[in-house]
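fwd from M.: "can u put these together and see what the complex looks like"

so here's what she sent:
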Amino acid sequence: MATLEIKDLHVSVNTDEGSKEILKGVDLTIKAGETHAIMGPNGSGKSTLSYAIAGHPKYEITSGSVLLDGEDVLEMTVDERARAGLFLAMQYPVEVPGVSMSNFLRTAATAVRGEAPKLRHWVKEVKEAMSELDIDPTFAERSVNEGFSGGEKKRHEILQLGLLKPKVAILDETDSGLDVDALRVVSEGVNRYKASGDVGVMLITHYTRILKYISPDFVHVFANGRIAESGGPELADQLEAEGYVKYIGKQEAASIG
Amino acid sequence: MAVTTDQEQHGLTAHSHGAGAPVSSRADHFTSFDVNAFEVPGGREEIWRFTPMKRLANLHNGAEATGTANVEVNAAGGVTVETAARGDERLGVAGTPGDRVAAQAWSSFTEATVVTLPGDAKSEPTTITVTGPGEGKVAYGHLHVHAKPFAEAVVVIDHRGSGAYADNIEFVVGDGAHLTVVAVQDWADDAVHVSSHHAKLGRDASFKHTVITLGGDVVRLTPVVTYTGRGGDAELLGLYFADAGQHLEHRTFIDHSASNCRSNVVYKGALQGEGAHTVWIGDVLIRAAAEGTETFELNRNLVLTDGARADSVPNLEIETGEIEGAGHASATGRFDDEQLFYLQARGIPEEQARRLVVRGFFHEILLKIAVPEVRERLEAAIEAELEAVGA
């Protein structure tokens, strides 16, 4: 039973004007089998939370702790965190010119699984996973994310999620920039991952629309660098109707249209 | 006509336009076979300003030959190999020395090697291995490669060993011929190599020239391409990897004087370690007669550690508006931490992630090396360079 425990997490980012505190004491526990939606307006620190957990060098943890099954995540390097079972589907996946997607996927799978997957099984596994996400097979030979559309990048993030099978997945605005078909395909990918084992999901989103495809067990409203309110799925309905005005003192919709 | 320049890249700094460009036109660049027609350069001259003159073993200042470089040709069937004395009328037809060291090499070589590739025929790769004169010695050389009309041939020129060596290499590419050249500079740590490559392309000739520079204390390579008829096509590719203390300089010049010709220059370099210095100067001149020219040049440098310096200066001169297109791009950037983070976030250890990124950076050039054995050897050499980073 995997558990990700975030306790009183304070995170700063270094800017030209000096250090700025973004996260001001986040407490959150995600257990295997649970899906937590983190919802919040722009600039509330949602992405910072995801990057800080993944270990991006830009963010400095000033206090607090993050434990995965009792192990101190903050003591680990970025790659160690991934091998320990954390996965971050990024809002803006990075392009890596000259490195083919197939080489990248195999290198990552080898690192995470601790041994190189048997070639024959691997080829089949990747092919099926790509097909489930409606990804054209020719993408395997293209450079990682290079020239991909926003939707193609997101599909490939979920492809990696399915192949690397982490204990806890953090999905950072995976729904942003997706059209209805892509949103459905990507959500189905997340649901397959959820069904594949005892895994935890932290679903970060601005809008409620992805929650029609991926049902959260818990919904947390994120505002001003901390969790302002927690509840069940009904909290998302409330946000859908009222927006974030209650939390930030100005109108910002959580639904589209 | 279309003149393009690339957009600023993420994590890279764009080159400045015009800054540092020579005031005079490339068309006025002085050339001569007579070494005494050139003044001894002091290092402030435009064409020498990046070069560490003190480390040139006096090649620029009348150093006498104290040894010879060994030239061994492993010729494919149908290819003829001869030695020729100075005065042989075939020599010097592809170009005239454009700096004092090239003129010194022209005046000082004892015998030239002439390799003739049969016309209207496809030949297997020919390998020319040039071994330096040995540590502390100076040698001059001359190599002449002639691809007869409609020849289709590959020539690998492999430079190894120690010592100081200056030479001229001529490539005469006959009408309709396809010549692929891979020049490897895999010198020992002490070596100094100053080399001018002169390529003369006939009508509808195609010339693919790849330079790989890995070893040597100072390497300065000046590839010049001229066209004698319309329809010529030159592709100049370069890959260099400078370690601590190494100076690797490449100065390409494409002289478009005939109409409807193409050129494409892509040079990529990586640098690591204190005092690693690379220089890329990319001159392109489109003369008034060269209507319908299409040209592009690109230089990218990846700085892997502190203390390394990459200079990159593209110069594009256009004397006619009637061209297909002309553009240049140059950028030097530090290692992209976002790429590293992305790969590491997928469980790939940092060192392996770094190698993936550097290998990816060079991929485009390596992919185009037509000779599999050479490609494999270079891939292995790049891996070895990366092992040395230990970062």
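replying to her w this: Chain B touches chain A at residues 336-339, 341-350, 352-353, 356-357, 359-364 (CB under 8 Å).
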